[in-house]
Amino acid sequence: MRPAVLFVCLGNICRSPLAEGAFRAQAREVGLDVLIDSAGTGGWHVGSAPDRRAIATALRHGVDISRQAARKVTADDFRRFTHILALDHDNLKKLRALRPVDGAAELGLLLDHAEGLEGRAVADPYYGNEAGFEATWSEVALAARGLALSLTARRD
Ligand code: 4NP
Fold first, then answer.
1. Is the pTM above the cut of 0.90?
2. Whose C-alpha lies nearest to ligand 1, atom 10?
């Protein structure tokens, strides 16, 4: 079955768009055929592009996330995606509560795929500065690499 991965944070304008961008780049690099998207558990920014600091950070790493648009997680996401990865524990808890009975997606923390950061949350950089976004990128990029490699190994 073709894997489908959804990254989920609170606003879908900072952390999960960076995770989506980093994972798209890694999937392309390892030749993984996978559906990729991101969403938020909150709806304040629906329809908005990612935060300009997130766009700038991704660009510095050669990834363009400027065309993403924020959306809220839906019940159908739990049926369409094979993996739904939360950026922190609070959003993982919200996902567990939102999951419909027939939602088969595997839920987990994104950083469980980052060696040495298992069980940890990606801190919200929204109220911080550019350096915080750079730290977010490092964490999500490490996890994106681990996830791409494990999904590639699981293929066939
Ligand atoms: P994100 O960051 O969850 O990484 O997208 C946030 C962005 C906006 C808000 C909270 C977190 N907000 O409250 O508007």
1. yes
2. 11
